Amino acid sequence: MWMLHQFPLCPFSRKVRLLMGEKGIGYELVRTDPWDAGDDFWAANPAGRVPVLEDRERRIALCDSRAICEYLEETVDKSPLINGTAANRAEIRRLVALFDETLFGDVTMPLLHERMKKRLVMREPPDSRVLREAMKLAHAHLDYLDWLVDNRSWLAGSQMSVADLAAAAHISVADYLGGIDWKGHDSTRGWYYAFKSRPSFRALLAERMDGIRPPEQYADLDG
After folding, report:
1. Which of 97, 133, 162, 183 matches a 20 to 30 Å C-alpha distance to 23?
2. Which pTM was predicted?
3. Are 92 and 192 found together in one domain?
4. Which CATH number fits the domain that encloses residue 208?
5. What is the end-to-end Cα distance of the chain in Å, rounded?
6. Confidence class of residue 167 from pLDDT cuts 50, 70 and 90?
7. Per 3-state DSSP, what percentage of the chain is helix, strand, and coil (rounded to 5)?
8. Is residue 13 part of a domain?
9. Domains contained in the chain, number
10. Helix-helix angle 162-176:11-23, to 10 degrees
11. What is the residue range of 167's domain?
């Protein structure tokens, strides 16, 4: 059986969990904080990052969320999430890279550093300047998501794809940490609230990071 090493507020782990949920793939969650991981974890991934997806019976250890998603897409013939024409598949991958690199770097990573790592690991107060900049940049990303939602059935085209999963994973972490202001972003808010009502999202909404409580609207499904 698959074992997924992750911690609750890792957006990349959340993306993999959403994909596995949509495809109906069973797995066991293994809580792994990279800043306090043991030798076995470092042996599985020398980069020291989650997620890591393991099947020890088959001696398989997969690292990097995009590589994991691609592997599962290629090996599980159910609910394709990198779909459509070659051009559409390229667009899906472009958006996943945008969310995993730019949205993460501008918004998710600073929020995680200031509101999670500083509190739980470094025992330092957050930098309000960094938080303000991250929330400012979040509006720019939400503007682009508004455009995608207004012009497509799903973010990358006519069907749900791993691009939707990636965006939802990052937004959910930012929302948990109080970094999302939905004012002026009704299109993306509607898409996100519909997406987080899916069965694959329920476990994420129920999970909590020790010592950090999300705002009340985090688990709200009413929009």
Report:
1. 97
2. 0.95
3. yes
4. 1.20.1050.10
5. 36
6. very high
7. 60, 10, 30
8. yes
9. 2
10. 130
11. 86-219
Residue 3 neighbours by CB distance under 10 Å: 17
| Res 2 pLDDT > 70 | yes
> What are the DSSP calls for 162-219, one per residue?
HHHHHHHHHHHHHHHTT----TT-HHHHHHHHHHTTSGGGHHHHH--BTTBPPPGGGG
Q: Which of 7-11, 35-39, 68-72, 167-171 has the lowest mean pLDDT?
A: 35-39
Average pLDDT of the segment spanning 176-191: 97
Q: Is 14 exposed, middle or buried (0-12, 13-18, 19+ CB in 10 A)?
A: buried
Per-residue pLDDT band at 223 (split at 50, 70, 90):
low
Residue 141 to residue 139: CA distance in whole angstroms: 5
Residues 114-141 pLDDT 10s = 999 999 999 999 999 999 999 999 999 9
CB 19 within 8 A of CB 69: yes
The rounded distance, in Å, linking the Cα atoms of 9 and 112 is 8
- Using the structure block, give the residue that is written with the tokens 């930012």: 174
CATH code of the domain in which 21 resides: 3.40.30.10
Longest alpha-carbon distance in the chain = 50
51: preceding bond cis by omega (within 30 degrees): yes
Same domain, 127 and 182: yes
Residue 170 token pair: 């990052």
Question: Do 105 and 40 sit in the same domain of this protein?
Answer: no
Spatial distance between the Cα atoms of 71 and 175, rounded to a whole number of angstroms: 29
